[in-house]
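Researcher: Structure for this, please.
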Amino acid sequence: MAEETHPVYEVLALRFGTHDGRPARDNFLVDEGQFTPGREMPMDFYLWVVRDERHFLLVDTGFPQEMARRRGRTLFRDPVDALTDLGVAAEDVSDVVITHMHYDHAGNLDRFPHARIHLQKDELQFCTGPAMRHRVVRRPFEPVNIKTAVQGLFEDHLVLHSGQAEIIPGVTVHSVPGHTPGTQVVRVPTARGWVVLASDATHLWANIRLRSPFPILDHLTPMLEGYDRIEALADGEDHVIPGHDPQVALRFPRLEGAPDWVRLHEPALDGFDAAPTTAGAAR
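Model: Predicted structure, token format:
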């Protein structure tokens, strides 16, 4: 049988904001004594682009300045405007994957008027369902983002998936519930192998290495089992890209002419420490 071939894509990450002053303890569900008192572990905010000569896929859409101000986050750049670094305007984007509907991943949807928005069906059901009556559950969501997604459903812009689906040739999404019921990851063939944009299926490299989840989650066991699935989809630890780790912006080479973007399709600059330590997730 002939070996299956796939296109080879570039994968770019933009670090557009941060949450400084965050205690390390806040990034893990269970403190097993690995945190020194007062230690800080910031979380950064990213979006991702998958591209080749024919395709341009945006993964997540960030959030606007007003939302950053209201939630006490620092925005370095408007994430949508930053697409112009790559010669692309929001109006020209044809496909957007939303990994889940939390505010920091699904903002700015109204700024992509011609894009198909790819979302897991379970995620839409969750963020429009009775779970939202609980204040602590709905806190990471923004009503305006959910309204925009529902409007896209009525206007045939929202594409709902149930589990695995191919978005562009060779690039697939995979349902990895736990953080939310409809969290999905994106698997991309690159020159260095299969890269998985894990988003908040693992916020930090330390979460997946320690098997210690981030404390905002819907179901614990599926999230832990999701770590196994993510690792099976990727071609190694350094091919799993977490959703908020500051080291993502430090360990990969910058894009020439657009230094706010890093190239995830190329090997890391300084290698990776495979040991499952929280030190591997600190700045």
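Researcher: Any notable elements?
Model: The mean pLDDT is 92. The radius of gyration is 18 Å.
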